[in-house]
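Reminder: ligand-aware prediction takes two inputs, not one.
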Amino acid sequence: MSPEKKTHEFKTEVKQLLKLIVNSLYSNQEIFLRELISNASDAIDKLRFKTQTEPELAGDDSTFKIKITPDGIGQTIEIADNGIGMTHDEVVENIGTIAQSGTAAFLEAVEQARHEDTLTPELIGQFGVGFYSAFIVAEKVVLVTRAAGEQTATRWESHGDGTYTIEPAEKEDRGTTITLHLQKKEKDDADFTDPWTIRRIVKLHSDFVSYPIVMDVEKDEPLPEEQQIKDKDGKAIGETTRKVIEEETLNSMKAVWARPKEEITDQEHEEFFKHLSHEWNPPLERLHMKFEGTTEYTALLYVPSKAPFDLFHPDRKHGIHLYCKRVFIMEDCKELMPDYLGFIKGVVDAPDLNLNVSREILQHDSLVRNIRRNLVKKIFTLLKEMEDEKFETFWEEFGPAFKIGVHTDFENQKKIADLIRYKTSKSDGKWVSLKEYVDRMKEGQEEIYYLTGDNLETLLNSPYLEQLRVKDYEVLLMTDPVDEWVVQALTEYDGKKLKSAEKGDLDLDKVDEEKKDTFTPLFDFIRTQLQDQIKEVRPSTRLKDSVACLSGDDRDMSAYMEKILKASGQKVPDVKRILELNMDHPVMAGMRSLFETDAGNPDLKMYSTLLLDLAVISEGGKVENPARLSKQMGEMMAKVMG
Ligand code: ADP
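Here is what comes back for the chain with adenosine-5'-diphosphate:
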């Protein structure tokens, strides 16, 4: 081993992922080529983008291509590109770790699926395995790469078994070469060194890649006349052809978006989408548009069918690639799509754009703004007209990201609100639009009621719904953290105010003032007992069967919001809540008579803290002192049982 050769351990999650890929993608072997070609094409894209400002980076090698070299004897296949390459540090950073956030969540989901025997390639495809897919077919992978503008190269090598090595290397030119030492073939396996196999795979999965994917092939070429051996009649008696090596381009490079709509098959769309998005599942919906008029451009957009695991990660790539007359300008063009639609993938080709446009210019470009506005409009139309079942899939996957738009895209707030769906206290697990909700509001109901929390089950059993149920009013059940922001931005719909079921006065029935007076001394007593925890004790208009709940004033933070902020490590101002008690509950009547006959009874103190604990538990919260609660309950049970 050379002194500079260093052996490294794969990160745990990479090891897990590698095992997973190799075990589960066996029947999907050939996709490794698509993944490596996509990476190569991305690397060329990146270099091309950089050369706009640093033209010297391309040097005298600006004929971009991806070359595949199979070797049937050595049983290797090599994929080489003259893209941006990687420095030593970039190799360490990119290969051997997994940059994607949400890896842990992903691996957990996989583990569970494996347990339940429901592991499918789709699930893995959600993650995009990229480079590591090489190990589906290879027993050893060698990557040699030289970054544009650098002189030294780096060699990375691994058997995919837990470690890899990195060392300095020589490489004549810029770019990355990946050599796969193929595993021994089983009987029915494809031969990936067979030129026909390679032609077929490239045509199927990577035909539209915008750089030539080439392979050296042996061809018969006629021998020049003067080199042919002839008999005395002038007839050739020996070989009339000779073998030559010729570089063949395997892909048509036809830009999918530039072709007539009717000509593109579903299969082609699927492959193009996978290439663009590094996802494996077919898209849910597509939108292919040519705009003609003052601004001319083509857009081909896809709505994926599965949300990525890192849907909310701030560093997540945006999905729009920008082209100008079929020439790639940049990936992740955030300027073309608002953040909340960042999951949409696709291509925009705008011939009027300046080829050397930079991100800074794009931000202020009126053409770009125009395109963006148009795209968003079209996406709304697409979503609005989507058939129900499809829309539901969309909503399940992307609803949480999409509805953030209510908060950030004021111009389209109404359209977004029209598309929003919630499950409700009466919908039996089905999604309901705000319009449907309003259409079936009960007579006398003035407001749209909602309740936020972290799961449907707790919300459905929440005491806050008790009186609303008596009235037969429907309540929107909001279980996404972002809903807290949605209701801040969307204060009303169709002229009806949104009203939290846990805050403020529900105004359902007036409090019985006479009855309230009989409870006032007891409520004062309870408030004094709990004054460090609560700000007030009130008769409840929300409760029917439960004895206690916590509420807030209209402007107070909801319990769920407090939980979210605390979970994200933010300091939350200590706002005391209101303890609401149900005057019609037998416990309150009993407590009142005990208080009236024996105000000094020590049990009253215990009952007060118990009431608060019960209120906390019923909203799914954590009681301050679980051990105390448990002890008190035990004592009470013993007492009851004598
Ligand atoms: P992804 O392509 O989804 O980011 P990969 O595991 O396929 O994930 O690749 C990880 C990273 O390694 C890429 O993001 C890229 O930075 C780098 N990389 C992979 N292949 C190449 C290549 N041929 N040339 C340059 N960089 C590459």
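DSSP finds 21 helices and 23 strands in the chain. Residues 31-51 form the longest helix (21 residues). We will return to this case in the review session.
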